[in-house]
Structure formats: C-alpha cells, structure tokens
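Hi R.,

Here's the chain you asked about this morning:
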Amino acid sequence: MNKIFLECGSHCSCSISKFYQEWPNASEYIIHSFEGNSDLIPEIKSNIKKNKWENVILHEAVVWDFDGTVNMFVMETTGGSTIVEGKIKYSKKLYKDKYSCKDIQVKCIDLSRFIKDNFNITDHIVLKMDIEGAEYEIVDKMIEDNTLKYISEIHLEWHNWRCGKDKKGVGFRVDWFPGKEVYPIDIIYMDKIKKISGLDCKYWDSFCSTLQHGLK
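And here is the predicted structure, written out as tokens:
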C-alpha cells in the first residue's frame, strides 16, 4: 500500500507546508502537487528545494475533467487563479475598478483518469481540492468514472456562490464546519460523495494554521 497526497491547487505550496506540519507521518506520503499558474511555479520549486520536500512531485497543470488545455484566468488583483468563468464574474463585482486579470492557456489533467492510471484501490489516498470552483465538475467526473472508491479521505474548500453555483446569502448553514458557510449546492455534493463512497467531506483552508477537520 502506498500513501498518496493529491494536492490540487498548490498556489504558493502553502498546503504542502500545512501537510508536513500537521499530518501524521507526512514524510511517508508521495505528494502530487498540481498548479497551472506559471507565475507561481518558481516559488513552489524554491520552497520544495528549500524545505527538502523530496517526496513532492510537481505537475505544472490544473486538474480538470479532461486532458488537454484550458483557459485560466489569473487574477492579478489577488494573485489567485481559476478556470471557472463564474469565479471571474464574482471577482469583477467584488473588486470593481481595482480588478485586473489576464488569460493564459494551461495544461489540464483529467484527475479521475490520473487516479485510475497511477494508483490502486488499496493505496491510502488523501485528496485535497482548493481549486476555485472547479471542484464540482471534477467530483461529477469522479462519480461518472467510479474513482471516488480510490479515495481514503477527501478535503475540500467549496466556492459555491463565489463561482456562480449558488446564490449569496440564500439557504446557507454554519453547523457543518465551524465558522464556514455551507450552501445548498455544497450539501448536495457532500451527500453524493457520502452515498457513493461513504466518505465524509472535510473542510480545507489552505491559509489556516490548522486543519479544521483533518486531525483527531
């Protein structure tokens, strides 16, 4: 059995750092880190080298529901990036005249296919996704391909109304994850995941100092 951490949406490698600091036996895991924003790659590589993260494999690509290329919106206002147009509409409304964005073509990897091709059901796979709204389509593809059965633990940050998947301020709950708004679309997807795989989704905040639901 191999131990795998699929770190989808690396940004500046903050989640790799979190994983090493807070996850039991982190050094035993092979970490596959995915980031499509080329502006961030030098910093990630530098952090990998500086911290001697020898078990990290960096993929200069985004995870998605097919293999190929996709348009990525790099938000120069915040340093974030997304492949979901709904997230861009939200950012434009939020930052108004301060909003700045550039479009780039990036490589995309079918995460479901990647899991099937590279791992076994007997592996212990921890999946983390903080991918600015692309999580919904990827979960749908994993359900279609029956690849959720490969996953041992799943940690997500849902982007709901921030990517156009729900209406802001309507029907949200705060009793699922302390201090976090969970919207109807999120509950639908968490119920799907639970029904198909038996997994309880856990919340991941890449910039938080602790894993809110990842440690016992």
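One quick note: The chain has six helices and twelve strands.

Cheers,
M.
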